[in-house]
Amino acid sequence: MRDARRVAGLALAVSAVCAARAPAQTSEQPNLIFTISAGYLTGGNLWNISRQLAFVANNGSGNLWDTVALGRKLRPGFAATLTATYFRSPHFGYSLEAGFFGIESESECVPLAPFTPSTDNENQQACSYLQGQNQRGDAVGFLAGIMWRLSTRGAQPYIRVAGGGAILGSSYVESAAQVITSGLPGATVFFLADQNHKELTWMLSLGAGAMLPLAPGYQLRIEARDLIVPLPRPTGPATDTAAVAAGSELPQPPVGFKVMHIPTITVGLDVVLERRRGRRY
């Protein structure tokens, strides 16, 4: 009887120790985190062309051209991302992200000399419209990366690196505007055309942030990142060819890419799914 009591007491002690250790081990188990975030991104100068000719008319003795300076700079915009992060160890994890990045821009047009008078002053109309005009733009990115968190309890600071591809929704090259001719709207003046619109590019995200507990299974995530993305830009003015003057061609400039660093800050909600012994997510 005495030995049976000793065995029972030992079993209870072991059970108590295991029960006390289990909660402490919970956060050390692999876990999966889904995050939905919204963010704000800033801008920067994208391109400038100091001298671009714009056809006016043929006066019988030759073609008349206006001269304008053109440019494009990025505006502040908004971002929305959906991220899945899997921690296979307490500190190291993998991430997959799909995001919409509102990389909008603002066009610039400044005449370098008075506009040549014409019947409807199309170039002057177009340039006045383009100056300071908000140009919609966006990139849809799909990124994969790795993440390292410094701690697993309380506030959890981390760093994250992710890269992948992006689809550009609109042109960052084209400089064109609709004008009114003889009292009728609808004609379009092209200072620069983008007939070979580049839709695909790569994207890299370098981020650092923190995950803050809100309630069991939920966290607040704050992240600052450097969003690196090459955007199309004209590398020089469009050629003032006879075909452009005749209207059989549009003024197409040479186009390349400029790597832009876009500072971004996001705030998101984490849904934490933990894997416990004997159970799946």
Textual characterization of the structure:
- It is built from 3 helices and 14 strands.
- The relative contact order is 0.19.
- The protein has a single domain (2-274), classed as Porin.
- Strand 2 and strand 3 (63-74) form a beta hairpin.
- It is elongated and about 80 Å long.
- It is mainly β and 281 residues long.
- 14% of the residues lie in helices and 57% in strands.
- Residues 1-27 and 277-281 have low confidence and may be disordered.
- It has an 8-stranded antiparallel barrel. A 4-stranded antiparallel sheet has the order 2-3-6-7, with helices on one face.
Describe the structure using short key phrases.
single chain, 281 residues, Porin, disordered C terminus
